Amino acid sequence: MKRKAADRNFFQLLFFFGTGSSLETEFSLGMLKVYDMHRSTDLLNTTLSNGSAHDSDLTPSVDILVIVLKAVAMTIIMGAAIVGNSLVIISVKKFEKLRGRVTNYFIVSLAFADIIVAILVMPFNASQEITGKWLFGRTMCDIFNANDVLFSTASILHLCCISVDRYIAINYPLQYDSKMTKRCACAMILATWIASGLISYIPIHAQFYTTNEHYKMLEQNPDSCTFHVNKIYAVVSSSVSFWIPCTIMIFVYFRIFITARRQEKHIRSTSFHSYKYIENGNLDSLLPVSTKSGKVSERSRLKREHKAAKTLGVVMGAFIMCFLPFFSWYLTTTLCAENCPYPPLLGSILFWIGYFNSCLNPIIYAYYNLEFRAAFKRLLHMRNSNGSCPSSFSARNGSDGENNKAKYIAVKKESTFTNV
After folding, report:
1. Alpha carbon distance 100, 400 (integer Å)
2. What pLDDT is attached to residue 386?
3. How far apart are CA 101 and CA 9, in angstroms?
4. How far, in Å, CA of 271 to CA of 285, rounded?
5. Alpha carbon distance 358, 113 (integer Å)
């Protein structure tokens, strides 16, 4: 019995030690697992911290690059607008041929508006885009917003006046000199600037344009200068500044296009019949010299008016392409308010697309209008190879674009043509 008891105690002791080593092994394995987990966590945290540090190192570099690119693009737009529109104004003032055209009165006033936009509007907007805040105080914020509305409205109203001028020149050529006088053009320009001032300075400085909440926010945050308008002002200002003039221009240029096509067909038909009479030797007996020279003069005038209408049509098209997205966004986001969220970057892009139009018009004139192109070349000292002035300014015109010298050249060309 003692032997069995001793064996039993021995096995119990073995079991106890065996169990203890097993527990110790499991405990050791558990500690290793915990240690591995902590080590993995530390490695993960180290990796994430290194990645965050790397991203934080990259972010300032990317921000600086974006700021530099924005500043360069804005500076180019401002400089091109000032230089190009200054060339337009100086060309009309310097050369009598351009100064004699009533249409160029509107073009000069439009160029002046674009220069003021580049000087008094774009720099303030650019500083706000680059620094991310408004730096010039509460009063200057209202002046900046008023100038922005003023000159944008003036630009589109000037184009509307130009479209009316071209409509009269194409559809009523015989009454053009009596209807579109210099005094009439000056009155239209004055009315354009007055209407632009009424829709901008009065409601903005009187705080009629915005909501009470936004007005209080601007008073409490002088570093902010957001242009947040109420629904009534959005509808009225966009209608006066864009939608109504744009509708008028589209209708007028549609009528100009129809009339111009009809006149071009008439010119081609007249040229064809004249060529037939020349072949038969009957042109001299059919028309007196004064009548022939008058017809040549009329054809050249119509061709010139058509070219001017096409040029100004391109100007109008560029203006609509630049400002239609802005005014669509401006009206839509105001009317639907919180239901139409948009990224702030979209508003900035649309604003600067509109500003970009200020430097487009001189480029269009230089490309499509031979007279302005010749004037720009002469101002920039790009003379012909023989050192003479551009041929476009060899003859000077009166109010209708022709004087006695031009008529003499037309008659001489006609007589040469009939003797072929």
Report:
1. 8
2. 43
3. 127
4. 17
5. 9
- The rounded distance, in Å, linking the Cα atoms of 194 and 89 is 21
User: What stretch of H or E contains 405?
Assistant: helix 404-418
With DSSP H G I counted as helix, E B as strand and the rest as coil, what are the percentages for the chain, rounded to 5?
A: 85, 0, 15
What is the per-residue pLDDT for 366? 77
Residue 388, sorted as left (phi over 0), alpha (psi -120 to 50) or beta, turns out to be beta
Nearest by Cα to 321 from 353, 348, 347, 345: 353
pLDDT tens-place string over residues 335-366: 987 788 888 788 889 999 999 988 888 888 87
Q: Between 370-379 and 2-94, two packed helices, what is the crossing angle to 10 degrees?
A: 90
- Could you write out the DSSP letters of every residue in 266-333? HHHHHHHHHHHHHHHT-HHHHS-HHHHHHHHHHHHHHHHHHHHHHHHHHHHHHHHHHHHHHHHHHHHH
Q: What phi, psi does 276 have (nearest 5°)?
A: -65, -45
Provide the terminal-to-terminal Cα distance of the chain, rounded to the nearest Å.
153
Alpha helix (H) ranges present in 95-132?
96-99, 103-116, 122-131
Backbone angles phi, psi at 167, to 5 degrees: -65, -45
CA dist 9 and 29 (Å) reads: 30
- Residue identified by tokens 């697309």 is 353
Instruction: List the structure tokens of 227.
Output: 């242009």
Matching residue, tokens 């240029």: 253
CA proximity to 120, closest of 343, 388, 307, 355? 355
Would you call 70 helix, strand, or coil by DSSP?
helix
User: What are the structure tokens assigned to 249, written together?
Assistant: 């221009």
The reported pTM is 0.70
**Which are the contacts of 107, defined by CB distance < 8 A and separation ≥ 6?**
88, 92, 162, 361, 365
Between 40 and 173, residue with greater pLDDT:
173
Query: Scanning the structure block, which residue is given the tokens 């004087």?
Result: 403
- Matching residue, tokens 């360069």: 72
| 3-class secondary-structure state, position 418 | helix
Residue 78 near residue 126, CB atoms below 8 Å: yes
d(CA 92, CA 185): 15
Count how many residues are written for the chain. Answer: 420
Contact 114, 81 (CB under 8 A): yes
Indicate the Cα dihedral angle 133, 137, 141, 144, nearest 10°: -100
